[in-house]
Write a structure and sequence with these properties.
The complex is a heterodimer of chains A (about 130) and B (about 400). Chain A has two domains: about 5-45, Rubrerythrin, domain 2 (Single Sheet), CATH 2.20.28; about 50-125, OB fold (Dihydrolipoamide Acetyltransferase, E2P). The termini of chain A are far apart. Chain A is mostly beta strands. Chain A has one helix at about 5-10; strands spanning about 15-20, 25-30, 45, 50-60, 75-80, 85-90, 105-115, 115-125. Chain B has a domain at about 5-120 and about 230-250: Peroxisomal Thiolase, Chain A, domain 1 (3-Layer(aba) Sandwich). Chain B has 15 helices and eleven strands. In chain B, helix 8 crosses helix 12. Classes of the chains: A mainly beta (about 130), B alpha/beta (about 400). Strand 4 (about 50-60) of chain A pairs antiparallel with strand 5 (about 220-225) of chain B.
Chain lengths: ~130, ~400
């Protein structure tokens, strides 16, 4: 099912879902219900391996109300091995040492739960 | 399609207006816009429709339904009126709607407006309100913020083309310099003046402007962006009148012709974009606007771009075709975008120094083009009688981009 709820439920099970166009083969991550290349509605979901590299990152010092007590924390754009990027929290790194966080470093997906809400997160893949 | 002229424009000072609501600000801006119409305008007689941009009135004033609210407040009840929402490009959405209305021949004179009354909330409250311009499901849940989204762009830019945070300060310094000449600006002060004020207050000294910008008084907001890389929280309103060119001489002999309109979208998710160092929506909007106006980037004499964060001025200056990809930061450092440069950008101080009441910004940008092309910009007037101006107003993380081109009419 190419729905938002299915995507979130899959995160809980440790899987980031993408979708693939049955007509032209275009892969979309995270999943989309309609092909961004050819416009076909004939798309199917697939599971990514949840592995990729750090494409860009920032360290949040001024947070929204909900995350105020967690600053500073790192948010990164992760380019997955299957192509396409997702945004996630980067955990297991020191937010006070930006110089230690290196673009291109390999990471893997990890589920973070806060107040029963799922946060997409990644940690360094050693 | 009918040709469309800008016949008058006005705006409030931007900043904290603790004693005024959004409707008070709109009335004030309307009053000024009326006085700007050279031969006068009678709202009740002339205005056939009203479109008003306001991004999140429900957050700031627990209010929706801005159309009938503002028409009632201006004595215009009865005319068609509604709110346009496109995040920080909401006023440009109003301007585009007004343009469509006049160009189609449906109405001959319309009023377009923008407003945001933000200071009713504290900083975390404003952060929450602004954040809904980003994808709530796929991105906001990570704890990302708007400064954070633009920080991701800055990091990718530095990684791909070189440069660093210190280089970006050319934009901060330039825009505060320009804003010091703008009576409407929220921070009508150069960075040196701000630094001096803080130095006296805190009993400290700064060697120079960069020493201040590197100090703890310019705190990190979202690495690598600091407080002075960000536009402020502001209240303000802007109002403009559009008329069909067939009848615009009834109002002024010195209008601005709207010759180019380009509108485009990008993925709402930043992660959905293959390249964060450009704004694809702006590239597309600019190409469409240039084509419609029959001009090239070289023909543009004066430009207003959406510097919600310093990096965005650089990215947009490239996306508009003024500089090659990866060369915008260098151009800013070399002063090419300053008041006396070959490509002046944000002569009014930009969002950075002028302020950014988000729903009012698009038409406030046009206000600067109006003054510059009519030679009314005072201490920040650029030389050689500029003839063609451009505004580029973006929504959210540049997921919407709206470009307008204006040409000075006959005198």
């Amino acid at each position: 099912m190419l729905t938002v709820q299915n995507y979130i439920d899959s995160l809980k099970n440790g899987k980031i879902l993408g979708s693939k166009c049955k007509k032209c083969g275009n892969r979309m991550i995270p999943l989309k219900p309609v092909c961004s290349k050819c416009g076909s509605f004939d798309v199917e979901e697939f599971e990514t391996k949840g592995k990729g590299i750090i494409r860009s990152f920032t360290i949040i010092f001024v947070a929204p109300e909900k995350f105020k007590d967690e600053v500073p924390y790192v948010v990164a754009l992760i380019e997955l091995d299957e192509g396409g990027s997702v945004m996630g929290r980067l955990i297991g790194v020191d937010p006070y040492r930006s110089e230690d966080i290196v673009i291109g470093t390999k990471v893997k997906f990890e589920v973070l739960v806060k107040d029963e809400e799922i946060i997409t997160a990644f940690k360094i893949d050693k | 399609m009918k040709k469309v002229d800008l016949i008058g424009i006005g705006m409030t000072k931007f900043g904290k207006h603790s004693d005024k609501t959004s409707r008070d600000l709109l009335v004030e801006a309307t009053r000024e816009a009326i006085t700007s119409v050279d031969k006068g305008i009678d709202l009740k007689e002339d205005i056939k429709g009203l479109f008003v941009g306001y991004f999140t009135p429900s957050f700031y004033e627990h209010q929706g339904h801005s159309g009938p609210l503002i028409t009632e407040w201006l004595g215009l009840t009865g005319i068609p009126a509604f709110r346009t929402e496109s995040a920080c490009a909401s006023a440009s959405a109003a301007l585009a709607t007004g343009y469509f209305a006049v160009a189609s021949g449906m109405y001959d004179v319309v009023m377009v407006a923008g407003v945001e009354k933000m200071t009713t909330l504290d900083t975390p409250g404003v952060t929450d309100a602004l954040s809904i311009a980003a994808d709530d499901v796929f991105e906001l849940g990570t704890g990302i913020t708007f400064p954070g989204l633009f920080a991701l762009m800055a990091q990718e830019y530095f990684e791909k083309y070189g440069g660093n945070w210190e280089d970006l300060q050319a934009v901060t310094l330039k825009n505060h310099h320009n804003g010091s000449f703008n009576p409407k600006a929220q921070f009508r002060a150069k960075i040196s003046a701000i630094a001096e004020k803080i130095a006296i207050k805190k009993g400290v000294t700064f060697k120079d402007e960069m020493d201040f910008l590197k100090s703890k008084y310019n705190a990190l907001v979202a690495y690598p962006l600091h407080l002075f890389d960000c536009s402020p929280i502001s209240d303000g309103a802007s109002v403009a009148f559009l008329a069909s060119r067939e009848i615009s001489s009834r109002f002024t002999d010195n209008p601005l012709h709207i010759t180019g309109v380009g509108l485009s979208t990008d993925t709402l998710t930043v992660a959905g974009r293959p390249d964060l160092t450009t704004s694809e929506a702006t590239v597309n909007a600019a190409v469409a606007a240039y084509k419609m106006a029959g001009v090239t980037p070289n023909d543009i004499d004066i430009t207003e771009v959406h510097d919600c964060f310093t990096i965005n001025e650089v990215i947009l200056s490239e996306a508009l075709g003024f500089f090659k990809k990866g060369e915008g930061l260098k151009a800013a450092k070399e002063g090419r975008t300053s008041l006396s440069g070959d490509k002046p950008i944000n002569t009014d101080g930009g969002l950075k120094s002028k302020g950014h009441p988000v729903g009012a910004t698009g038409i406030a940008m046009v206000h600067e083009i109006w003054e510059q092309l009519r030679g009314e910009a005072g201490g920040r007037q650029i030389k050689d009688e500029p003839k063609i101006g451009l505004t580029c107003n973006v929504g959210g993380s540049t997921a919407s981009s709206m470009v307008f081109i204006f040409e000075r009419g006959e005198k």
